[in-house]
Structures are given as structure tokens and as C-alpha cells.
Amino acid sequence: MSRRSVLAGTTAGIVIAAGVGGGVLWKGHLDDQKATNAATAAATTFAKAWSSGHLDRAKYAGTTPAAAAANFKTTTAALGAGPVTAKATDVVRRGSMATADIKVAWTMSGGQKFSWTDPINLVKHTSGWSIQVPDRSLWHPKLAKNDAFVVTTDSGNRGAITGSGGADIMANQTVYDVVINPVTATTASVQQLQQITSVTGLVGELTAAQRSHSQATIPVITYRAADYDARKSALDALAGVLTQKRQQPLAQTRTFGQPILGSVGPVTAQMIKQDPKYYHAGMYVGISGLQAQYEKTLAPKPGFTIAGKSHPSDPLFTKAAQNGTTVQTTLDPTIQAAAEKAVGTLKGQASALVAINIKTGGVLAVANGPSYGMERAITGQFAPGSTLKMATAYTWLSKGHSPSEKVNCPVEVSGGGQLIRNFEGESFPNPPFSKDFAVSCNTAFVNASKDLDDSDLTNGAKALGIGANWAKQLGYTGAYDGSIPVAKDATEKAVSAFGQGRTQVSPLALAVAASSLARGSYIPPALVTSPKQPGSRTPKPLNAEVDAQMKQLMRLPVTDPNGTATIMQNTPGGPIFAKTGTAEFIDNGQDASHAWLAGWQGNIAFCALVVKVPSGQGGGTVAAPVVKDFFTTLANES
Q1: Which residues does the UniProt record annotate as the domain NTF2-like N-terminal transpeptidase (predicted)?
Q2: How many domains does the chain contain in total?
Q3: In a domain, 42, yes or no
Q4: What confidence tens digit (pLDDT) does each residue in 51-105 have?
Q5: Alpha helices per DSSP H over 502-599
């Protein structure tokens, strides 16, 4: 054999040997990777079981899946229903043992997240890899075995509603929520509770809760501190009746600013159904008015502290509460109180009174009667009657006419074929237009309207702010700025001249018109100034010559011996400029009217409405006394 052959054979033998060894090494590598993959799969399954809440879907060493799931439920009960995300990371295997980190993010009530890393051990058995149950809690590295999370919440304070100059309108005060614990309450104790609180139906709610084995408390009523103190002893004596103290924005009285300000109360099932991502059981939220409209501005973002039950003073996580944001309005508490007192003289009659700061256009007061009735001062839609003659007169004078021009005021006149009469059957032979305005002669305004085009009144009213599209920038949902449609025919043009037909306004819309005349320019009214509202509030000047004439006309209903607002003479606080209105309609076969008075005194423009007064009564006899009471109260407080 040659040397070359020997070397070749040796080399071949070495290659063969290396090949056999490489196969052994590669197989070992594959086995290791397979084992690591299996451990990783077990950790991943465990993490997915966290996320889904089905902890019985993982394998455990040292307990059963059912027991692990039960322990998980007990340990995490205080954290709520989630959602929860868990992810297995950093899996390291050493032989038949492995470690991994479970990255957990638990979404708490209100959307805040409690996140932590839970290190786990895994062990391999003949049946595969399992999660090793440690001596501590399996669910958090700082919890003891069989420990549980404890959550202490800090709800934070709801934002206040402030008025002009930052004055308190609804500021946080202490309130007491009365609730029923269905587990410990009795029928007898709840019957007594109904008598103390005057809340009915509570026995039925208790019965339903006990039949369903519900442990959720049943809300009953929320008391101001003074009201609660008067009932505290009686409530404390009732089995299963609990009181919970908290802070809530309150107005100066229960009726102050209702219904525009609104109220705060327990979230309803309907609200949760409509927006389950925001609302949840147990929340106290805005129920109506500005409180509901600006709920997400006013509402605080709750904070919480999470600790272990075994070490409650050693927090695992803390999230500070964020107080709600203030909603700023232009309301003046003194003027609002005077307006509410004034409509209160009507003894529950449906009514409204609005006041506006003439210089700024800010709404100073919005009073509705009765106080717990519907909101009509801003959102109401009513025929304005003769108060619209402010716009008709402005429009007519803008066409080149004069207040001294003669416009006949007969008892009746034909308007496009429809016979139109004056409210009280009055007539004045060929008086100047200024007299027609003072006595609010319908037939004279029908005669004057014949010189107007079909769209003139629409445009004239808009120049004063009626139908001027300011509703969306006021800051109050449902605000109505009025509608004076273009006349379809001569009859509609005639009846629109004195505020009937299809003409519609809110009390605020008429107050805006009055403030425009007083100011000499139109400015969109403002109610909510923060959050900032859309749109420009740049003044739009009126026809200066015509506006000066209108200021003179607006005094005449008060000063003229035959004027419709003579009751306003000698009103404390200075001269009153006013226009009355009586919008007639048929109610269940009976003649009825809405009574109006709009105008201004000093820097305050106003509009008062009394709804559905008997036939024969009108703005000068029903609405005017309300306004006089309003300014008398303000004068006495100045």
C-alpha cells in the first residue's frame, strides 16, 4: 500500500467519524429546542388563560386546574372584570425546569391599567410541561400564598360649574347617598325607609334583589348635609340601610338653576347600555342639563391604590385621581336668584325668564317655572306674538319709513283675504306709526307689512339675532334661535308681521333681539365660555339711524297713556324699554294665549314668557308683573 493510499484511507475514516458525532450533536440540539418550545408553549397557554379568565385551561404542578382557577378568582376579584392581557416572555429552560415572565396588564374601572411582571417556574413531567405552584401567590410576586388584591379607590372631585367672574354656581359639597344592602335589609326596615325618605317602590326592589341573590346595593336617595343630619338617627336605626359620604357639585338650593344646570346621580341601566365603554355600575354622573352635556369635562378620572390583603399599607400600585375640569358660564348668581323668585310668583304656572348682559351678550339668568319642570327658556319654541313687532318695526323703518308716518289702525283689516282683528278690539284713526307700536296695533302692522317683500321680515329679524344660527355656539344642547320663514303668500306675510303664523322663537331668542336694539349691534349670545364654543362673536352693527328710532319706540309701550306695558312705569332701577306680546291659539277648543314681555333696563336685556294664559290676558297683564318683580328684587339687593 502506498503512503498516499494510507493517508487517504485515514482521512476518509476521520470524516466518517466526524459525521457520526455531528449527527449525535444535532439530534441533541433538536431535542433541546423541542423541550424549550414545549416549555414556551406551556407558558404561552398559561398567559392566554390569564387573558381569557379561564385558568383551568393550563396545567399545574402542585394543584388542580379547577383549584388554580378558583384561587385566581379569589385573589383578583377586587380588580374587576378587566379586560386583561397577559404575555409570556423570556422563557429559559434548564433541563426539566424552566422559568418565564408573564407580563400582565389589567384594565381597571375608568380605563386605567395596573401592570406588573409575574415570574413563574415550569416543570416537565412525563405528561408534559406544567406551571409550578410556588410557596407565594402564583398571581403576583409580592402576594403571599392565598393572599388577595385589595383596591382602595379615590374618586376625585367633580368639576364645578362657575358663573360670571368665577362665581360659584355648582360647587362641590358633602352629600350622603342612602343605599340598601339586600343581604341584611328586611322588609320592615325598608318599609320604614320609604316613610322616612318618601321614596316608593323600595320593598319591590328589595324583594327582586333577594330573589336573584344579588349583593349589589340598591341606591335610594342622595341628601345634602343638612337634610341628612335631620334624618341621621332614624336612618342609622334601620337594618341593612347604609349611608355613603362623598363630594358632589350642588347649587345654592335644590331648585336653583333647574333644569338648565341639571343634576348628578347614579348611572342608569339605560346609560350603561348606550355607552358601556364609558359608563359602569356604581358611577355618579350627570343626569340632565349642563351636568349631563359636559359629563366628560366635569367628571374626574378616578385614582386607586392596589395592595395585598396581608400588607395593605404596602402599595403595589398607585394611580392618583384627576379632578374634573370646571365648566365656566356667564350666569350671575344674584340675577339668577332674582329671576327664579320672579317666576315663582306665578305659583307653578309654566313660564320662563331670561336675562342678558347687553355689553357682552352673556346670558345672566335662565329661569324656568316650575323649577323642576321642563326647560323652555332656551329650548322652547313658541309663537312670539306682538314681541316680534320689534323686528317688524326695525325692518319697516329700514325701508325708509319714519316713526311719524301715518299708518291706520282700524278694528279689523284684510290680510291677503284673511280678516285680522286687534287683540282687544281697539282702533285709532290714522295714528303715527309710533302710536301703533305703543298700543301694539295688529291691523296697523298688517298695513305696514304691505310695503315689505316676502323675505324682508326674515332678514330683519335675523339682523337682530332671531334665526341667526347662534344655537350651536351658545354651549347648551337644544338651544333654539328662532325661525321667521320667508312668507309664502300675502296672508302669511300679514300674520307674520305680528308674530303669528309659522313664526317661532324661544324666550332667549327674543332677549337677544332686545339686547341687539339696546346695544346697536347683534352679538351671538354666550352661556358656556369654557370649554370654548365654536364660531365668531364679532358684533354686527345695526342701521344706526333706525336703531336710534327703535330705542325711542321701545319706551312708548311703557310711557304712552294707551301703551301696553304701562305697568312697568316706576320700576326700580331706571327706565324700562319694552314690547309686549300675546300669541293667541286654540287649546282643546278654548281660546288661550302665550304672554310675553321683552326689552331692557340699563345693561340687562330680558324676555319673560307665561305659557297658556286664559283668553283676555296678555303680555301687559301677566308677563309684565313678572319682569317688574325681577327688577324690583335686583334694585333692593343693590
Answers
A1: 39-147
A2: 3
A3: yes
A4: 998 999 999 998 999 999 999 999 999 998 889 999 999 999 999 999 999 999 9
A5: 507-519, 544-559
